[in-house]
Structure formats: structure tokens, C-alpha cells
Write a structure and sequence with these properties.
Layout: E1 8-10, H1 11-18, H2 22-30, E2 37-45, E3 48-55, H3 58-61, E4 74-77, E5 79-83, E6 91-95, E7 105-108, E8 113-115, H4 116-126, H5 128-139, H6 148-162, H7 168-182, H8 191-208
Antiparallel strand pairs: 1-8, 2-3, 4-7, 5-6
Helix pairs in contact: 7-8
């Protein structure tokens, strides 16, 4: 099974898969090693409205991603890169406004992504896939069909970096995706089984939130 099989990976998902912090992803992009993008539903510019896939400047975003690995859920972008007409891979950096004409556009941290092609290029260059697979095999209890220990590690990392989602079902689906990506054959427990395991943790965290 190819290690990368998606068209896009959010930086949150990428950080979990590569076992690094969100700040590490942004630092790599700021250093020119990774291209990060987002999808704009709508934005105003001096040359008219734009929508669709745009490139983000990691240097502009560094202040949102703390050295300790934390980051806020929402952030504002003020400029984006779009392909320069007739110039190959060159980009034009333009400033954007929201629908009301306010400076900048609000985006969610989960809307920042890298392409599947970029994901695979980077992990192949740094042999990340090999390391991740070895760690998963070594830590998977032989008596269990699924790597529940791995799920709890992903859960802790998720809560530490971005907190809880809006619902338990959303969290269960996210954890199921982690099983699929960590499994060599794409096998994963069903969402209801995952939800039963997460329910006591979810209840305790919601009571202390």
C-alpha cells in the first residue's frame, strides 16, 4: 500500500503522522522545504474577487504557532500567493480582504494543508514513512487486532495541540482515520467501537472544560 494516498493532508494530520509539532511544519515551510496551501471560498483583492487553492506564506503565520507546539484554532491571513500568468512556478503575492471589505481573511487551522504529492516528496526525502511504520509495528500489542495504544497517543497529541472538536462523533471519525492511515491494509475498528472507548474520556474532559 502506498504510504501517501490522499490528495491533501491538513497540517494537523501531517504533524500527527510525522510525529512532530505544528510549529515544525510551519518552520519547514518558512525555510522553503514545504509548500503550504489553503482553499479560499471567497476573498476580495485589488484586482477583484478570488476563490480556490492559494499558497500561504509561512513567514506570515509563524506568530500563530508557538515554540511549545500550541496553536490557536482560528487565524487570519493577509496575503496569498497565486500563480503568475505565464511564469511557470512563480507566484504573485496579493493582499486579501473578507466579504465585508475587512483586512485579511479568517481561516481555520485545519484548512491549512499540503498536497499529497508534496507530502510524499518530503517524507520520501527524509525517510519519514519508514520510521513511522517501524514505530507502529513495534508498539502494536500482538494480542490485539487494532493498535489502541496508538490511538490514545494520537488522542493525547490532538488534545495537546488543538483541543477537542465540537462532538464525540467527530473525534471518533478522526481517530478512525488514524487507524486507517497507520494500518498496512487500511483496517480500522468501526466508529461505534471507537466512540465507546472514547466516551469516558470525553465525559471527564467535558466536565473539566
Amino acid at each position: 500500500m502506498p504510504f501517501s494516498r490522499k490528495s491533501f493532508y491538513s497540517i494537523v494530520e501531517t504533524a500527527a503522522k510525522w510525529e512532530c509539532s505544528l510549529r515544525d511544519i510551519i518552520d519547514c515551510s518558512a525555510g522553503g522545504e514545504l509548500t503550504i496551501k489553503t482553499f479560499l471560498r471567497y476573498a476580495e483583492t485589488d484586482d477583484g474577487p478570488i476563490a480556490g487553492s492559494v499558497t500561504l506564506s509561512a513567514q506570515d503565520l509563524l506568530a500563530y504557532f508557538h515554540v511549545d507546539g500550541n496553536a490557536g484554532r482560528s487565524l487570519k491571513i493577509y496575503r496569498v500567493g497565486i500563480p503568475a500568468e505565464g511564469s511557470g512556478d512563480d507566484l504573485n503575492w496579493i493582499f486579501v480582504r473578507d466579504e465585508e471589505g475587512g483586512t485579511g481573511v479568517e481561516i481555520d487551522i485545519n484548512d491549512i494543508h499540503i498536497t499529497g504529492e508534496e507530502f510524499k516528496r518530503f517524507q520520501d526525502k527524509h525517510e519519514i514513512g519508514v520510521v513511522v511504520k517501524e514505530v507502529v509495528r513495534w508498539r502494536t500489542p500482538p494480542a490485539e487486532r487494532h493498535d489502541w495504544e496508538g490511538m490514545y497517543r494520537r488522542l493525547c497529541k490532538r488534545i495537546f495541540e488543538i483541543g477537542l472538536p465540537e462532538s464525540l462523533n467527530e473525534l471518533s471519525i478522526e481517530m478512525q482515520q488514524g487507524f486507517i492511515e497507520a494500518s498496512e491494509n487500511g483496517d480500522a475498528p468501526d466508529v461505534s467501537t471507537i466512540r465507546k472507548r472514547l466516551q469516558p474520556i470525553w465525559n471527564d474532559l467535558r466536565e473539566t472544560a
